[in-house]
Structures are given as C-alpha cells and as structure tokens.
C-alpha cells in the first residue's frame, strides 16, 4: 500500500514539475524614461518555434507597432546571471515599422531546452513609457516574418499551461485520493 501511494505521489510530482518548467519571462524592475531594467530567465520550452530570422536573438515587446521607442538605443549593461554563459555583448531597443522592441543578442542560435538568465539595463531617455505596458510584452526567439516584431509565432515566453493541462493534473490527484480512501475504507482498524 505504501509503495502504491509513494509511486502515485512520485508520478504526480514529476508530471506537475515538468509542466511547471518556466518558459522565458521578462521581469521588469524599472521601466521609465530614465532606465529600463529587467531580467530574462527560463528555458526555451518544448514545442517552441524558433524563428529562422535571427534565431540567436530574443525580442521583447508588444506585437504590432505601439510607438514607445522614440529613437535607436544602444547597449548599456547586459550581464549573464547564471549558466550556461551564452550572452553576446549586444542589446538595444529599436523603433521599427513592424513594432518597437528590445533585442538581446546571444552568441549562438537557440534550441529547445536552452537556459537563459540575463539581466539587462538600458538608458531610457529615448523611450515613451506611457505608450506601452511592459506586462503586455512577449519574448520571442527570432522571427518568421518581418511583418510583426516581436513575432507571436516565435513566442517563448508563455509559461501558463493550457486549461486542459490543469484538468489532467487535477483528475490524477482526484483519482489518487479516491484510490487511497477506497483502500482504507475496507480495512479494519484496531480499537484503542
């Protein structure tokens, strides 16, 4: 009995931890007209589409042109926070007809499972923070089309599992609880 419970618990833990593996997220600690400071952290998730165009670049922004970058910005500080160290010495923000974006350039093309842990600090004097909500930004790896940058088809920043995934996890937990209760229901307990 104990072995079955342990096996079920282990299976549920492994299953849910694999779902919880975070995609790449951009966490902003400052976003104003003096500076943009954020970290990029996570892994390129399974099933991610890495764009054929610039597959070594992460683009951060809102898909479509929101006109929040007034002029080209150059690299200020970009730092590797963890391993593996794969950061090139380039990051900037760009005004673009297909969408304004921040780009962070890495030293090799991305593939599924690659880890990113980068801190970026950019001078914010050439941005218009009122024109964009950083919480609505996506992180895309490369691009498939120059029509929209960052490209939603290469979004690697969606870390929220589908509702069906939550349902599957809850169903497995419920089955485990039912099996556990059913097992004990038929046993006789010694009286004290």
TrEMBL record:
Stretches assigned to the Ice-binding protein C-terminal domain: 159-181
Record's keyword annotation contains Protease: no
Domain of life (superkingdom): Bacteria
Keyword set, alphabetical order: Membrane, Signal, Transmembrane, Transmembrane helix
InterPro entries: Ice-binding_C
Transmembrane is among the record's keywords: yes
Chain positions covered by the region annotation Disordered: 71-91
UniProt-listed Pfam families: PEP-CTERM
Signal peptide from the UniProt entry: 1-22
Transmembrane segments: 163-180
Protein name from the UniProt record: PEP-CTERM sorting domain-containing protein
Native organism taxonomy: Bacteria, Pseudomonadati, Verrucomicrobiota, Opitutia, Puniceicoccales
